[in-house]
Design brief:
The complex is a heterodimer. Chain A is mainly α. Chain A folds into three domains: 119 residues, no CATH class; 232 residues, no CATH class; 104 residues, no CATH class. Chain A has a two-stranded antiparallel ribbon with strand order 1-2. In chain A, helix 1 packs antiparallel against helix 3, helix 5 crosses helix 26 and helix 17 runs antiparallel to helix 18. The longest helix of chain A is centred in the middle third of the chain and has 29 residues. The N and C termini of chain A lie far apart (54 Å). By secondary structure, chain B is mostly helical. Chain B has one domain. Chain B contains two helices and no strands. The longest helix of chain B is centred in the C-terminal third of the chain and has 25 residues. The chains are: A mainly alpha, B mainly alpha.
Chain lengths: 546, 57
Amino acid sequence: MANVSVGRPDNTPTWIISGMLLILGVLVSSGALTGLLTTFKVHKAMDLMQTMCFVGGGLGLVTALLRQGRMNKPMGKLDIFVLETIPGILFILALAMGIRWFAEPMVKIMSDSLVPVLGFKIYKVLNLNYVVLGILVGIIITNSWGIPKFAASGVKTARFVLKMGVILLGARYSFAELAKLGMVSVWLIGFFVLGTVFFVLFLGKVFKQPKSMTGVLSAGMGVCGVSATVACAPVVKAKSSEMAYTIGTILGFGILCMFAFPTIGKLAGMNATQFGAWAGTGILNSAQVAAACLAFNAVDIKTLKVGEIFNITRVLFLPVIVLVLATWFGKQSGQKLSFKEVVIDKFPVFILGFLLLFFMSSMGLFSPPGHYKGKYLDFSYNQRTEVTPEELTILQKAQSDGIPGLKAEEQSAFDDLVKQHQIAGNFDDREDKTKFDETARERMRGLESMLARAKGGDLTLSKDVKSAVKHATKQVKKKSKTVVTLTDCMIWFFAYGLIGLGMQITRKSLAQAGGWPLVMGGISGVAKATLSFIIVMYFVKDVVLH
Amino acid sequence: MGQPDIKIAAEQQKPDQNANEERALSVFASEKSEDLTALVMVMIVTFMVLLFTKWLA
C-alpha cells in the first residue's frame, strides 16, 4: 500500500479531476446532456448531479491550489488529514458518480435488450447494481494499474464512509414490520437465521478457516445477503477479499436456487404460501426471491407477498446477529470475556448507531412507524387518494355489467372501491384506526389479487378497468421523503465505500482466502434449503398475514 | 536454539501484521474514533435531512 507520508504526490491528477467535474457540471446545467440522461433514466438526479459536480470540482480546485503553494514545505496535520486525503476522495466520488449515473443504467439497458435472447434480465439475476459494480471497478483498478499514488490516502476513508452507510441502513426498517407477521413466521425465520449463522461458524471451525471470514460469511448466509455482509464485516474485522467472496457466494448460490426452486416446488406440489415461505427462507437476495416466486406462480399474488415478507424480515434480525457475532468474535479473540465486557468494550459503536436509527425509525420519526424502506399505506380519506371521475364512471359501468370469475373477496373489494371512490376501511370504523386499516388492507389485497390474476390470464379485465384499479392501488401507496433522502445518502456512502474496499482486494488476497467461502457457503446453503423445504412442507399450511 | 525462537516469534507476529495492514487502511487513530466520527457525521446528516424534508417542508 502506497504510503503518503513519503513526499507529496503530483498535483496534476487533482487538477484534472476537478476540471472534469466542473465541465460535467456545466454540461448538465446547460442542458446538453439532458437527452442522454433521459435515455439513462437518471434525469431526475440532474439537480444533484450539478450540485455534486460544482461542489466537488470547486473543492478540488481549492485543494489543488493550496497543495501547490505548500509543495516544498513539511507536512502538517492539515496536509495529512485534509489536503492529501481530498484528491483520493474526489477520485472515488467521481468513480461512484460514473457508476451510479452512467455504468449502472447502461448495464440495465444492455440487459433489457438481451431479454429476447436470454429470457430474463441479466442485471437482476446477477444483481449487477452499484454494489457489485463498485467492488468490481475497485478490483479492476487495483489489479491492473494499481491504486494511483495521489488517491492512496483517500482510499483509506472507504471503511469509515461504509460505516456511515451501515448506520443509515437502520432508518429503512421499523419494528412494526416485524409485528405484522404471524408468530409462526417469526419463529421460522428466527430459527433459520440463527441456525445458519451457527452452522457456518461450526463449518468454519471444522475446516479451520480464519474467524473473520467465517464470521462475515455466517452473517451473509444467515441474514440477507449483501447488506448484512457489509454491516457485519467490520464487526468481525473481515478483510475486503473475504467480503467480496461472501457476496459472490451468496449471489452465485442464489442464481442456482432461482432456477432450481420453482421446478422443485412444482414437482413437490407446494401451494402458493408454502413456496413463498420456502423461497423467502432459502434464497438470500430479494430480487432473486421475487424472480423465483414469479416463476413458480405469476397468478397468485400470495406467493410473492409471502416470499418477500419472509425475505425482508430476516433483515430485522440483523441487530441480533450483530450482537451474537460481536460476542463470538470477542470470545474467539483469546481473552475470557464476560457478556458485559463484550457488549460494553467490544461492541462496535457504529452498530449502536444502526440500532439508534432503527429505534428512531420504529418510533415514527422519519415516516409512519409501520413503514418498510419508507413505503407505507395511507388509507385516510383524502381527495388525492381517490380515483379520477372518468375512472369512477368506468368502474361503475364494469360493476353494473358484472365481471365474471371474481372471487368473493375480490368482488367485495371492487364494490367498496366503487362505493367509496378510494381504497379505505369502513366509514363507520374511521375512529378505530387499527380496524379501519385492517379492512382497507384486506380490500387492497383483493384488488391486487384481481390485477395479478388478470396479468396471468386467469381473469379477463378490460384495459380501462385494469388501469383504474391499478391507479386506485397506487394512490394509497405513499413514500416518506425523509426515508427516501436518507436512503439516497446511504446508497452514496455504500457506493463510495465499496469502490474503496474493492481497491483493497488484490489477486494475492483473493488467492489467500481460497475457495473456502464458496465451499462453506454451498454446504450451509444446501442444508438450509433442504431443512426449510421439509419444515415448510410439513408445518406451513397457510401463513397468517395481518 | 536462538533460530527456532525467532521463527516462532515471526510466525506469531504474522496475524498481527495482517491486522495492522488492514488497520493502516484508515485515516483514524483507532477503531473507536472512526466509529464515533461516523456516528456524529450520520447524526448531522439525519438532522439536516429531517430539517429539509420534514420540519421545514
